């Protein structure tokens, strides 16, 4: 069931991206935008579509914000992979944009993907004007210097810090770096429907943290071929991770607790939210 | 009169930026955002405020989109100055962000400034929901792969091209690189008022082109201390510019014609638009 739904969402998002990017000028930056948005789990876009469905909104209507958040996420990866940032050559099993093209193209590709996210989320078919304005404004806040960029800045600062991060600090870093966009995605459904966002905000906070802990566990236990990017990097770099702070068993226990918290937060929705509960379990169990 | 109005607008925008950035976390990226948005002519923000005033909207209400476009413009400069792009050490007479901090901070600073622009333009006090959504969507289109980023990509491609650009190609490049944001700024006023954007679109097209021609002339005639950035760079690099294509006198003549076109486009507004006419004259006469 979860697998089918994720597959359906990924298919819709992929086709939509082909169509949107196909309407842009035929230049290397646009080819790189297509490369950067290809593949991946589409977890964020899936959360948009699934939380919209939970509020009676059809996947086709939720597709624009779903594609938007995938563009936003892809932009962050393209910039994060740059030599002056994480310096990664491999992403989703493919050469990163600055390897396949060059650094300048990677900077511009990320920039244009961020713009495209705001273009998509404010498209007429997304819904009434207040929904479009709210989705854009909340996406901007989640992305910027009090959200994702803050998390990335804290991450970079941690690399040159003389003492490893505490659990509190690494949690704050994660809440920005991956948590903010996951939370936006999960709250998109109630926002589109004008419903209360609190239950899905609580779900997303736990989910986002569980996601990052699972990532740190994968960095230890995964192999690069399955994960699609270099593994063991954070450990080799001596960076504090949830695993280094909690131990491998402690991290796994914490991830399981968070999955439970995420599932409990959805009680108001009853069994309608079972796909989202399965999503939380999947996020911790995934191998890539 | 023009000087007073520009001074007033720059003051309002500067104070607003201080307030907005003062509410963000106290981290290097936010300090760099403040550095990157300091100074400059604030031409784009001024156009927002002045075209809003022309439609009966007070400067205080137009301040949010005015500050937004200055953030967007500042982001483009921070990324454009990066070593992998134009590699400039000096901007507005100050060290560029990657010089004062580092490349990673410059990438993140630009990214966060772009997000901030969309946050500001969708703020509640900007106006009704349809205005906020429209301003965000048109700003996204002006910024992305069919607007500013396209212009920058064409600019980079021109550097390695074997033949210099034609007048048609350089005009297209300019329309993206500087024209799209200038056009958005000039159309913000009628958009906020729900009025026809056509006269100001025509004004902005001529103004944007005149602005770029004046920039190319300054690159030849200006001195670095007054201009606030390196001069003679485009000429030394053998890049096609409006001056290399039209000659110095021809470029000056073309700029003057465009100022006339810009002024004529405002006839519907009568003498109410005199400040905008003076702005067009200023853009060509400026020394920095």
Automatic annotation (TrEMBL), chains A, B:
Keyword field: Carotenoid biosynthesis, Chlorophyll biosynthesis, Isoprene biosynthesis, Magnesium, Metal-binding, Photosynthesis, Transferase
GO biological process entries: carotenoid biosynthetic process; chlorophyll biosynthetic process; photosynthesis
Pathway membership, UniProt: Isoprenoid biosynthesis; geranylgeranyl diphosphate biosynthesis; geranylgeranyl diphosphate from farnesyl diphosphate and isopentenyl diphosphate: step 1/1
Cofactor: Mg(2+)
Reaction equation(s) it catalyzes: isopentenyl diphosphate + (2E,6E)-farnesyl diphosphate = (2E,6E,10E)-geranylgeranyl diphosphate + diphosphate
EC number(s) recorded for this UniProt protein: 2.5.1.29
GO molecular function, a single term: geranylgeranyl diphosphate synthase activity
Gene Ontology CC entries for this record: cytoplasm
Keyword rRNA-binding: no
Highest rank taxon of the organism: Bacteria
Its job: Catalyzes the condensation of farnesyl diphosphate (FPP) and isopentenyl diphosphate (IPP) to yield geranylgeranyl diphosphate (GGPP) needed for biosynthesis of carotenoids and diterpenes.
Family in the record: Belongs to the FPP/GGPP synthase family.
Record's protein name: Geranylgeranyl diphosphate synthase
Organism: Sulfitobacter noctilucicola
Taxonomic placement: Bacteria, Pseudomonadati, Pseudomonadota, Alphaproteobacteria, Rhodobacterales
């Amino acid at each position: 069931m979860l697998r089918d739904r994720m597959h359906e969402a990924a298919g819709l998002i992929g086709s939509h991206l082909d169509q949107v990017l196909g309407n842009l000028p035929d230049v290397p930056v646009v080819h790189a935008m297509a490369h950067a948005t290809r593949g991946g789990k589409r977890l964020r876009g899936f959360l948009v579509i699934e939380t919209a469905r939970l509020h009676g909104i059809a996947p086709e209507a939720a597709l624009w914000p779903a594609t938007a958040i995938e563009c936003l996420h892809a932009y962050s990866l393209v910039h994060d992979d740059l030599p002056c940032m994480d310096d990664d050559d491999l992403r989703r099993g493919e050469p990163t944009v600055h390897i396949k093209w060059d650094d300048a193209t990677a900077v511009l590709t990320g920039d244009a993907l961020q713009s495209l996210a705001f273009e998509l989320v404010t498209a007429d078919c997304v819904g009434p004007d207040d929904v479009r304005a709210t989705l854009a404004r909340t996406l901007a806040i989640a992305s910027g210097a009090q959200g994702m960029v803050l998390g990335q800045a804290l991450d970079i600062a941690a690399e040159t810090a003389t003492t490893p991060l505490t659990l509190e600090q690494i949690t704050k870093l994660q809440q920005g770096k991956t948590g903010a966009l996951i939370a936006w995605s999960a709250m998109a459904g109630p926002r589109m429907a004008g419903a209360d966002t609190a239950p899905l905000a609580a779900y997303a906070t736990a989910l986002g943290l569980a996601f990052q802990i699972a990532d740190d566990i994968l960095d230890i236990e995964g192999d690069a071929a399955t994960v699609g990017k270099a593994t063991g990097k954070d450990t080799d770099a001596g960076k504090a991770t949830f695993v280094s702070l909690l131990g491998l068993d402690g991290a796994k226990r914490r991830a399981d607790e968070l999955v439970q918290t995420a599932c409990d937060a959805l009680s108001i929705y009853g069994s309608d939210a079972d796909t989202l509960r399965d999503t939380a379990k999947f996020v911790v169990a995934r191998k890539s």
